[in-house]
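Question: Send over one sample?
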Amino acid sequence: MLAPLVTIVFLFVPTALDSSQQTLAAVLLGVVVLWVCEPGRCCGTVWPAGSPSSSSPSPASAAAPGASSPRSGSSRA
């Protein structure tokens, strides 16, 4: 919701740019705001557990405590 608002506001702010350059700058600014404010990371948005944007542990960190990985075992000769 923030990125389209930033884009529209920047389109109507008087600048010293040509109209095509200002339109391009507004779109790029909107894309940057959208990228920085990814869903689940901006404006206090909280996603439920298990959603695609929630971080899941890697398989190595999900292993049982004390379990050794195949590489940490005995060395091969």
